[in-house]
Every structure is written in C-alpha cells, then in structure tokens.
Amino acid sequence: MQISERRPNESGRDYAMRILKDNIINLELEPGMAISDRDLAAQMGLSRTPVREALLDLAKVKIVEIYPQRGSVIAKIDYSLAEEAQFVRYVLEVAVVELVCSCVDDSGIQALEENVGLQEFYLAHPQPAKMLELDNQFHRLLFQIAGKNQAYEMMNSLTIHFDRIRRMAVLAVKEQKWMEDHRQILEAVKKGDVRLARQCMDRHLNRFHVDEAAIRQQYPQYFIDR
C-alpha cells in the first residue's frame, strides 16, 4: 500500500479515507482483497478508530464489504455502479464545460494547455499514476475555472467506482483516446463552442463503455459475475 504524508490539520478519519481511496483507485488494494483495520491502522500510523470509520463510510458507497467477526474485503467491480457514478459525472461535467466556454480567460486557457501538454508527454513516456493524476487535474481545472469547486469535491466523493475503471483503462487500453478527448475539449473551449464542447465531453465520459472489453480481458478476476 502506498502511504503519503498526512496533511496539516487533516483529521485521522479524513487521512485514512484519502489513503484508502487512493490505494483502491490505484489498485494497490485490489478488488476482492481481504483487509484488516488493525493492519491498515499500523501502516498509516493511526489508531483503529479512524480507520474503522473510513471503512464504514466506504461500505456505504459499496466499495468495501464489511463482514462482522470476519473482517472486510475490497468490493469487486460492478459495472452498474460505475455507470451510476458516470451519470453523476456526466450531469455535472457537461454543465461545467458549458460554463467554461463562456467564462474562461487567458490564465484558464494557459493552465489547461499546460495540463494537456503534460498528458501528451506522459502518453509518449507512460507513467500510469501520473497520467491519471493529470486526468483528474484537467477536470478539476474545468470546475475551478467555472467557479464550482464544491461541486467538484461532491462529485469526487461519489465516483470511486468509475475511477477504478479509469485506472484500469490506462493499463489495459492500447489507444488512449481519452487523452485525445482532452485536447478536443480544450480546443472547443478556446473557440467558445458550447455545442462542440458538449459533444466532446459526452464522448469522453462514455468512453469507458467502449473500453469495457479490453479492461475485462486484462482484469477478469476484478469483476463480479453478471
């Protein structure tokens, strides 16, 4: 498990939640893996209470399964839950990209250009974790430009099922079309073309359906049986 430093003023519960989510999304904690709050707490340098609280929160969104007297398991992937998470993203992100088309300034364009440039660099020099980090940053930038930071945080807390599949796509899909999507979204934003920006975002957020076969072929053990 990858353990980053605790942030200033970050509560034990929030720290445990952040570390667990990061490791679940990055597949350090694999779907189907048994976990122990005692072991997790020791690795994070926490007492068991904040770790248990974080696991309970993750169980509410069905990413962790808790079995009394037996321990906990990282839930296998249910594509229907990923589709529900994608729906939340779709509703918010299509609305946000429309706003960005009408309010973006030169500094916003520059930030998006720098991000997409780095994505193109790491597409040529693959580092999966960095690629996913830049993907997340691109979408966060759109929300920041639109002045909808709280909406991003709300969305981000709900879309872990979708994020796991995005992480797998980085490793399983040979043609990383979703990175090209970011360039096309950026070009539409620069033109202020709301219709084109919507189309590009629609295609981008639905790409995981296109990639499903490749992801399932590489990671069959991570999915629940249909």
Number of DSSP E strands:
3
Termini distance? 29 Å
Helicity range: over 70%
Q: Give, in spatial order, the strands making up the sheet with the most strands.
A: 1-3-2
The portion of residues forming beta strands comes to under 5%
Uncertain segments of ≥5 residues (pLDDT<50)? Answer: none
Per the principal axes of the C-alpha atoms, what is the gross shape? globular
Radius of gyration, in Å, reads 18 Å
Q: Kindly report the average pLDDT value.
A: 89
Q: Helical segment tally? A: 12
Which structural class fits the helix and strand makeup?
A: mainly alpha
SSE order? HEHHEEHHHHHHHHH
Largest sheet features: 3 strands, antiparallel
Describe this structure in words.
- With 226 residues, the chain is mainly α.
- It has 12 helices and 3 strands, in the order αβααββααααααααα.
- It has a 3-stranded antiparallel beta sheet with strand order 1-3-2.
- Strand 2 and strand 3 form a beta hairpin.
- Helix 6 crosses helix 8 and helix 8 crosses helix 12.
- It is globular and about 60 Å long.
- It starts with 11 loop residues before the first helix and ends in an 8-residue tail after the last helix.
- The model has no long low-confidence stretch (mean pLDDT 89).
